[in-house]
Structure formats: C-alpha cells, structure tokens
C-alpha cells in the first residue's frame, strides 16, 4: 500500500543516521570501557587483547603484497604508540579527561603535517584548529594544577594519532585496498602490543592485587 511504501522509504532514509549514531555511541564508549579494562588488568595486556581480537577478525582481509604490509607496519607503529599511551594514561586519569585530550589529535594534524614536510594548510585551517584547541583545553585541561601523569600520556596519544592520520593520507593510496591495509595495520599493532606485554612479564602477586583492588 501507499502507506507501507511511505513507511519503508522513511525507514530507509533514517537508516544511515541510525547507523552513524550507533557507531558514534560505540566509539565514544571506548574510553569508559578502556578505563574499566585497565583497572582490571594492565595497560599492555589490555592493548594486546584488543588488537589480537581485531587482527583475528580481519585476518581474511590480510594483504598478499609486500607494499601493503610495509604500509600497515608503519601505521601499526603509530597506532600502537597511540593506543598504548591511551591505556597507560587511563591508569591515572579519568575517562572523560582522556577523551577530551585524545581528540587534540585533529588539532595537531596541521602542525604535524608541516613538521613532516607537507604544504602548510590555509589560514582558515589554523584559525579553526586554534578555536578547537582552546575549547578542548577549556573543557578538559585548563586547570594545570589538576593535571596528573595520565593527562600527559593522553596528549602523547593524541600526537601519535595525529601522526597516524598524516601518514595514512600518504600510505593509503599505495595499498592494495583499504580492507587489506586495515588488516595489516591491526596485525602490526597486535604484534607490537604482544611484544610489550612479553617485555613487561607477568605481574607479581603484589602488583596483581593492586591492579584488581
């Protein structure tokens, strides 16, 4: 009927917005989930578990060419640095503050681009980046007396994320496909996180008790 067709068309029109809303909710919850996770374990093992799951899920998309693996290895390095710093930071800072500080990454992209030899962005980009930076600091980091070491780690995570974004822009066109590049990046990140976990070794009983307390 005409009414059923109209309702179906309305649902189809709303579907993309519902999907974006769901993705945003899932993405935004990562800081709270990671805060809980590092409270139950340690940053290295949580990061390793996170990316081992991702690597296994994306294994069917693994690239067969060396160029994509090389690109994924570099991106995996920056991803590991960012997510490891985020996890370490969440051991001592709040999920809310971590989220605000981590999303300095977008504001840092123009600076990182210039420092890595890319053409300078137009003045309007610098202007709006400065406005966004001021807003982030006002919401999450203006009170320097309240800063803890985890906040510094969160800023380091933002810097690594900005480097990831800048390098992704250059490396993505060299990959066989976006899916294969994502698989290679996840595998490299997982490997680095596993190496970090192995280097740290098992928690001794006292540290394990404190982590679970």
Distance between the termini: 61 Å
Can you give the mean pLDDT? 86
Contiguous uncertain segments of 5+ residues: 204-213
What's the helix count?
10
Give the percentage of residues in beta strands.
under 5%
How are helices and strands ordered from N to C?
HHHHHHHHHH
The main β sheet shows up as:
none
Report the helical percentage: over 70%
What kind of assembly state do the chains in view correspond to? Answer: single chain
Question: How many runs of DSSP E, i.e. beta strands?
Answer: 0
Note the overall shape: globular
Helix-strand makeup class: mainly alpha
Radius of gyration from the alpha-carbon trace, in angstroms: 20 Å
Would you give an account of this structure?
The protein is mostly helical and 213 residues long. Helix content is 80%, strand content 0%. It contains ten helices and no strands. Residues 204-213 have low confidence and may be disordered. It starts with a helix and ends with a helix. It has helices at 2-28, 30-40, 43-58, 66-89, 95-102, 105-115, 123-141, 149-171, 178-200, 205-212. The longest helix has 27 residues, at 2-28.
Tell me the layout of helices and strands.
Elements: H1 2-28, H2 30-40, H3 43-58, H4 66-89, H5 95-102, H6 105-115, H7 123-141, H8 149-171, H9 178-200, H10 205-212
